[in-house]
């Protein structure tokens, strides 16, 4: 589903964001991506979403090579991805409902069918009662859930989440992880970047750790104990 | 379909969310377009006038008042032998007076005359040539016996035509410059719109919007603004012509003429609207293309 092969990413300023990163995530897998801030987690996710292109190596997403994919083909790749942004990227000039409607609008979905899907997605994240509200009136946790609803409304095969539990307390974080797990259960592939120790306690989940742009080969268990100290 | 519709209505709603700014833009576009359009209309009217007044040059040869029939016949045969002359037409003095009465509305004045003040005349139609050779012919004819005066009637038509050519080039330059201005106005309006909707564009791109999807509402906006500007220009030109015709009426009555400025024809009106629509669309396209090229992944 997602395959990195000796990927390097360097920014024009000169800092090396990713160094020789190789890994593979299979269909239907759920993977945590961890590491200190600045370790390259966001860059890695941006490469998967084709927001950035690698300088060296190949990034394959759904068997498509991000490095050589034409700009014209990018939209169709991204329609198979759901992205939960760290900063949510919600639009405050429209209602909660219309925010979730946007991906379906972009794909040109039938309007009636879209309405049903939007309500289903809002129901899943527990925001159905707030559909007419402006997202600016929502709490941080609610905004995060709205962002998730927008990411899953399109039923993408891959879901990327960048620090989805970043500023939330533990109870909220568990709630959000439960939503992700339910989405995983219906067959989606998930890549979740986090440094939230309460989330990383779940040792059944494979964890990739980045340290200064390099992927660590340590086992998930040791990563976890290092995190907790 | 519903989506596309709501997207486009959204574009128009945004336009009228700031009605004053939208109106000012449309007004500026209208004025910019009305200048070359107005000049074009005046030019077309002038061209019509010139065509109406016949631009085939002719030399009027007025004979001396004491010219007799014999002199006239001799002159006629000499004119026929001149290689530069195509054909001639004789206008007897009585005939000329009659024509004058009919064509100018000066019947009252002429009726009061005790005798016919007009001489006999030949109208000489020269073979085609430039203004210089015509002038030479006129000089030659003026020296013929019994000729009082030779007048090159259509020299002014040549001059006018040269003037019209000049006018056409001027209109073309003005139209090109102001078209660029229209594109620039739209470009800038759309650029400002893009700035206020940067978040929406960015998010849309990130969740799989094609460039076409992002471009569409802006193109509709630009085209609509251009079209409304074109309609504004049409109104400005049409109202100005009405006003001018109103002022022209007493003037043309003084000359006993039926001259009125013709308004824009249906075809010209449609061209104006289509052209302004296209320029608005183009300005929007350029503006969005410039922005989109900057947010592609590197």
Polypeptide structure, described:
Chain A is an alpha/beta fold and 229 residues long. Chain A has a domain at 1-78 and 191-229: P-loop containing nucleotide triphosphate hydrolases (Rossmann fold), CATH 3.40.50.300. Chain A contains eight helices and ten strands. In chain A, helix 3 crosses helix 4 (111-124), helix 3 packs parallel to helix 5 and helix 5 runs parallel beside helix 6. Chain A is globular. The relative contact order of chain A is 0.19. Chain B contains ten helices and four strands. Chain B has two domains: 2-53 and 158-294, no CATH class; 59-153, 2-Layer Sandwich (Alpha-Beta Plaits). A four-stranded antiparallel sheet of chain B has the order 2-3-1-4. In chain B, helix 1 packs across helix 9 (211-254), helix 2 runs antiparallel to helix 7 (155-196) and helix 2 (19-52) packs across helix 9. Chain B is α+β, with helices and mostly antiparallel strands and 298 residues long. The chains are: A alpha/beta (229), B alpha+beta (298). Chains A and B meet through helix 2 and helix 3 of A and helix 1 and helix 8 of B.
């Amino acid at each position: 589903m997602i395959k990195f092969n000796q990927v390097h990413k360097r920014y024009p300023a000169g800092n090396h964001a990713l160094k020789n990163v190789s890994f593979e995530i299979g269909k239907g897998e759920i993977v945590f991506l961890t590491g200190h801030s600045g370790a390259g987690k966001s860059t890695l996710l941006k490469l998967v979403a084709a927001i950035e292109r690698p300088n060296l190596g190949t990034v394959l997403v759904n068997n498509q090579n991000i490095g050589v994919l034409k700009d014209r083909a990018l939209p169709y790749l991204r329609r198979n991805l759901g992205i939960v942004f760290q900063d949510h990227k919600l639009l405050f000039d429209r209602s909660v409902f219309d925010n979730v409607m946007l991906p379906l609008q972009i794909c040109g979905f039938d309007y009636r069918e879209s309405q049903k899907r939007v309500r289903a997605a809002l129901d899943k994240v527990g925001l159905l009662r707030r559909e007419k509200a402006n997202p600016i009136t929502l709490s941080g946790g609610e905004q995060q859930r709205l962002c998730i609803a927008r990411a899953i409304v399109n039923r993408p095969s891959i879901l990327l989440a960048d620090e989805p539990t970043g500023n939330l307390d533990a109870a909220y974080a568990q709630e959000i992880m439960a939503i992700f797990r339910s989405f995983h259960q219906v067959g989606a592939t998930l890549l979740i970047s986090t440094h939230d120790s309460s989330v990383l306690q779940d040792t059944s989940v494979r964890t990739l750790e980045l340290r200064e742009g390099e992927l660590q080969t340590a086992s998930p268990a040791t990563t976890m104990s290092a995190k907790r100290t | 379909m519903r989506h596309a519709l709501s997207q486009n209505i959204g574009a128009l709603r945004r336009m009228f969310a700031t009605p004053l700014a939208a109106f000012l833009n449309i007004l500026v576009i209208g004025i910019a377009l009305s200048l070359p359009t107005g000049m074009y209309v005046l030019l077309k009217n002038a061209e019509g006038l010139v065509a109406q007044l016949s631009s085939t040059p002719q030399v009027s040869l007025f004979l001396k008042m004491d010219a007799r029939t014999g002199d006239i016949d001799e002159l006629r045969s000499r004119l026929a032998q001149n290689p530069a002359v195509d054909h001639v037409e004789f206008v007897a003095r009585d005939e000329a007076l009659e024509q004058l009465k009919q064509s100018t509305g000066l019947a009252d004045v002429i009726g009061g005359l005790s005798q016919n003040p007009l001489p006999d005349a030949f109208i000489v139609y020269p073979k085609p040539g430039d203004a210089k050779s015509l002038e030479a012919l006129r000089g030659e004819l003026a020296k013929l016996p019994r000729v009082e005066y030779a007048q090159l009637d259509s020299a002014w038509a040549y001059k006018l035509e040269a003037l019209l050519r000049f006018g056409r080039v001027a209109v073309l330059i003005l139209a090109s410059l102001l078209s660029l201005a229209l594109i620039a106005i739209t470009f800038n309006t759309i650029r400002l719109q893009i700035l206020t909707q940067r978040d929406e564009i960015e998010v849309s791109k990130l969740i799989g919007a094609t460039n076409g999807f992002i471009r569409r509402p802006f193109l509709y906006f630009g085209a609509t603004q251009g079209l409304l500007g074109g309609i504004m220009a049409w109104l400005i030109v049409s109202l100005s012509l009405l006003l001018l015709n109103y002022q022209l009426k007493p003037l043309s009555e003084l000359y006993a003429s039926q001259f009125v400025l013709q308004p824009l024809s249906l075809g010209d009106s449609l061209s104006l609207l289509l052209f302004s629509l296209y320029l608005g669309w183009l300005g929007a396209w350029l503006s969005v293309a410039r922005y989109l090229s900057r947010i592609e992944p590197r």
